[in-house]
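Colleagues,

Please find the record for the two-part complex below.
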Amino acid sequence: MAIVEVTDVKKTYPLGKTEVHAVKGVSFSIEKGDFISIAGPSGSGKSTILNLIGCIDVPTEGTVVINGQQTSGLKDREITELRHQVIGFIFQSFNLVPVLNVYENIEFPLLLGRKRPTKSEHAQAREYIDHLIEEVGLSNWRKHRPNELSGGQRQRVAIARALAVRPQIVLADEPTANLDSKTGEDIIGLMKKINSELETTFIFSTHDSSIVSIADHVIRLKDGLVTENFRKERTTTR
Amino acid sequence: MQYILIALRNLSRQRRRTFMLGGAIAFGIMVVTLINGFAGSFVDNVGENFSQLLAGHIFVEGVEKTGTREVRVIRDDDVLTHTLEEQQIPTRFISRRSNFDAEIVFQGNTIRQNIVGADWTREEFLRERLNLVEGSFDELTTENELGQRQGLILSKGIADRLRAQVGDTLTLRMRTVNGQQNIGDFRLVAISYDPGLFGSLSGYADLAYVNQLIGLQPGEYQTLGIFVDSISQIDTYFEPYYQTLENRVQVFPRNQGEEGQNQVEALFRAAEEDNWEGVRYRLYTLNDVLEQVQQIVDLLNNASLIILLVLFFIIMVGITNTFRMIMIERVKEIGTVRALGMQRHDVMVLFLLEAFFLALGGALLGLALAGITMFILGLINLGLDSAIYILLKNGYLTFLLSPWQVLLNFSVVIGLTLAAAYVPSRKAAYLSPVDALRA
């Protein structure tokens, strides 16, 4: 079942008096539970595609359907709600809230919902956050603020934060770009493990070919066009 | 709750900036609170000092008119005191006084001075209020061979100008109530501190001797002064008292002054102008006398509000610019929280909460600083001879703050700060998440 469907999507940005055609008409679909890499060199349109799937940007042409819902034409309130409920984000520069500690950063997305949690929901959430902290190996760092953590640890917090609302899709824009290769591999390994355990769809962009090889599904981009859409036989550990 | 936590922690991110902004707010609140506090006690202190000076809160003066002859006298006050009791007006003390305008002559020096005749055996508060530099009250009640109590108390300023010392005999020229010239000898028994301008207005002597000199009989007097139990209740007690007396005796009508004319002035004019005969009573209150003081207080309060607004207009510009800067600094964070699912409205709330706590913190600090300043200023004894004695309480500055005034100041400050932060907050909320993340 396709959780993301991208059809004839084009994205054009104004740049001074000219226009930049970042995505020139791409179509693909992503299955639920995929561990998918959007690969390509710098300027190929990877981040733009991720932004469009993440509903933080809108296509100039074409349609993006997330979890069966057409994203174009939604009001800001609705699209924000869709992001909150369905999508988790992992950023290249981690983008943690600097004034919150590890626990609070992970908890943060849970507090953005419109519904006030009941006592039992709150207790469940606490338990789940503790589980996530343990899963990303930061049990001893829960009270630390981002500036007290290494790059790898920050990205682990970002992963846990992205999973806090139990999203169906996690988008990671070059999650290893600011990390050394060993830490980068660990982070991708962690994402893969969570993907297998929770069946969460992970979509990550990278230009690192060694990381691309870990993905089940690879979409290669060049100059805003899909050059390759390759799906491996999915290996399941669940 | 998390938003409050984030807002508070965000404030602590740039401590110096927060301190500067909060400090500016605190300074504004401090200045305004001090003015309000001073204005608050201004009426009370001036009122209290005036009530001591005039010996009462509610005053009744008797005027007897036969043809064109007018005599200021109360010969029988039964109806006046009986009505007081009947109306159950709680009184602390009732003073009975006469006075005359004197020309004091001593060793070639002449000074005009109002001399008040008081019953020293009863007016204990006057003994407490008059602080003596020299002499004592005891000799006021000492009688000479004619049974007269010739003791006189003058303020230091007047005594110095006359070059008179305790023990000297002074000659006073005055007119009787019938307008005849008279002369009397007084012995300067004490010199009091000169509590500013108002202290020099009157000298004090014995009521019986003053009555004798101005041609009144023993037991008669000119002004009945009623001290009620609370200075703030004067008007509440006065109205029924006046209305009841109006039905029993002749009283000068009130509220007949022309626009801008003081009630007391109007009452005195009425005695001169009206075509009437018999005995009439002139009733007025301390508030009538202090009408202009109240105007000064209103002026002070309005001025403080204008100062607050001007100060905060300047501070608002600073706050708006600072929040614009904050927005630029945190643009990526705004993009992140929007991507994570924070609604526009909540982004605005986050910024406005920060502004709210900044204003609240600044205002509380300002209030605390004002409190400390008031406390320190209140410890300084400005002296009983201070030129602003009438504004002081026993020589000390006092401050009285109305909780409503504090609440109003807080509301103005918080409201203006939120208004200043509103535009940048809205701008932050309406940033496109993708643009914010790219910044």
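The first helix of chain B runs from residue 2 to 11.

Comments are welcome before we finalize the supplementary table.
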